[in-house]
Task: structure prediction
Amino acid sequence: MDTDRAFDLLTRLAAASGYDGTSAETQELSAAGLVAALDVAARARLADQANQASAIAARVRALRAALDQRAGPKPDPDPLAMPVDRDPVRAELVSLTQQLELVAGAQSVVAGLVEDGSGGGLRITLNGRQTLGELDAWRSGIPVQPLDTFLASLRQFRETMDALVVRAQRLTAFLAGAFQAPLGSSLFRGPALLLAKRGPSTDETAGRFEQALAHVAPLQLLQDDTILVASLLALSSAPPADVESVFDQFHAGLGGRFVGISDNPTRDACLVSATLSDLPAGRVADVLLRFDQLKQQVPDPHALPLAALTRAPYAVPDTVARYAAAQGVLQRAGYGAGDATNAAAALLASSMHPPAAYPDRFSYLDGRLREVFEPAGLAAALLATAPYPPSTAYHVYDLGIGTITRNSFFDVTAEIDYLALLLVYGMGPLAAPVAQAAAGFTPGTTVSAVAGGAAGGGMAVGIWPMYHRVYMVPMYTRFVTTHPVHFHAVPVFG
Amino acid sequence: MARPALWVPNDPVDLVRVEEGVEVVGNPRFAADWSSEVRGAYLPALLWQLLDRTPPGRPVRGVRDDNRTAILPERRVTVDEHEYFLAVKGCGAEYDAYEPVRLDAHRLRALCHDPALAARLDGVDGGPAAFIVGERWWGYAPYGGQAGDSALLALLASLRADRNQIAGFYLCPLVAAVRLPDRIARAASEFYWYRRYDGAYWQEVRLMPSNVRLFFHSPVTLGVDSGRVFSLFGLTSFDACERFLERLARSTLAAITLYARSLRRDAATGRYVGLDYDEVYLDKDAVIAPDGTLHFADLEGVEEFFSGGPEAVRERVEMQFYRNLYEATYALEAMALETWRAFGLGSSGRDRRRWVLDVLERALHADPYARVERTASGSRVEIRPAVDPDRLALSLEWASEEGE
Result:
């Protein structure tokens, strides 16, 4: 069975009408755990059970009403006279209520059964509903393929996300220990998620982080900047000495270049050098030259957006034109000039999508992420760079939220969205079987061109965490929760 | 087996429990729970300290709930399948009445109108200190404390209940209403900004199954922190979420049909009388038990209202239903959204709303007073009041259609 047919059949099952699957198709869906089939005898047993519901419910209603009539408006003269557990009305009510829960379950199953011609019945399972949602989200962006292949890809995708969060939980504990901070501190979850993507061995990642930290510590940055820079250095799979050497070269080269285009040249030079530290040592001079060219040609240049553009896989004139187009899209969406808007534009300009696709991709996501992120344009631009349709990108982000909450990898709710974005950015390659099949998008260039671009591509999104390095806002959340602006809220609490 | 009460950690509150000079109006249904470890009034530690630590008392460490309430998580009471902890309403305000900053000795000194008392604050350290203040708040209540009529109205609603519920409407019953000794009241009345309160100072000692509210006034709320609520209540499977939603739907529908289900015929006047809300709301005045059952907490606003005839009854039932329906729907939608998200059930709002309706229908299956009716274009709730149901029944819209 292919994905289109599976979508059609599952849709009909979910709506409990019009199912026309063949016996072989039903078996395939059943074997995949997407539908449950009941034989004639099982259906009859359930129906018998369900038929008792009305009588039990009527009796429960009568008992409940009788009990309710006993209470108030005045209290019983001696309410303690009849111990509750010896009251026959209550005892019957408790027993019938338990029965009713079972019977109501059977009734619900029977009501949702779809005829399959066997006299028994079919119903969609929870797994089937999840798959239907996935098919709905992905099928516009992927070619029709065998259902088995699709399900295997999804399984891998979900397992990957869960495994990442589990690793991030371990790394959070490691970071808290390293900085002698409480485990629940919000400072570490974001960097831990970044680090978790490095590889399956948390011990190795932790070792790399410690090494990077030792290299970064003398720079005397603020603690959250130190953690972010060390995390970015630790992400590279190149030998630590090479990474540190490239970092140092960029740090030395960029420091002077950031004067006048950054509010904090010292810090930004460190952050940007860290995002570039995965490049080969032989590319440093080229990258700095490209940085200088972009700085001259981009109007009103800012350090972090320039860093992203430096890694864009396009020639300098093309990059400048794409950047201008992206800025236009953001401005038309209502984002005023500024560092964050420029950074969002740089992300779009560095993506594989052609400028003509920016408006649709960006506006779809921007509309959904406003009021969620601050600044929202940056998050929307980040998801818009994904190699699949924007609706799918949003779905992946939604899965990320589910993964974060399911694993309780957060403290306050406000950080969930930020952590989800960190989790899913760059998840295309991890979801390779699904993402590679995402042929529906209209790329401005090929994936290989991105990988082999002017400065290596890929890490442009590294600037995103810099804008959100405080991933959560506990004080803000507390304020919103306890200081409501609401039409009937009392001035100070109730 | 009872589901344990759960509370979200919050700031500690230092209280002192005193018994001497305290007047108590208790709820006989919880007489056994008014034990030697519980009974008494709960004073802010600083207020007791200012009065030379008299009457004698015992220190109690509570946990901040909203501005003037502290929960006592160690003191537990079980009623059927629910466990509750004790909470004291009116044991001191955490925040200044006119600025969003915590009260402390320095601020209290500035608003104290008794020079002798003010002088005693000089040596007190500058940390945050909750306090019962004699500012007349809402016209009739002391800020940080509780007025007598409010506490006794809450007790009346509790007496009307069959322990923790009134015909399926769950509440946080009062164990007792407590009047503070006059000497303490006089001292508290010396602290005010604009308008002095000279009445009696009361407290409510009530039972609460959790400190999670629907949207406002809790450190964690279902509407704002739904993911965290899932963690706190251990909602890790779809089945658990569905059971939670079913109880939430059943109890929330009971809350918005309270007038119908509490309706009585008043023999003396021939009129109908039932319970309705006066300036209290589901989003800030109700808490959610760990099994999903919504409990109304602020009972001072749950009062009897009379209706002259059938038309007036129907009008009040309809007004109560629609006035609270948005907040009830918000609760169910917040729960459903988080379930859909946590278990990756797709983004179809239509599917999600259909699920909510299915669960709601099941939840009301054995409810004597309300049930779901499906219609060609949507769904309605048929409400059959507790008395004269054939004359007073009415059908109100739940959803116009299952649109996208």
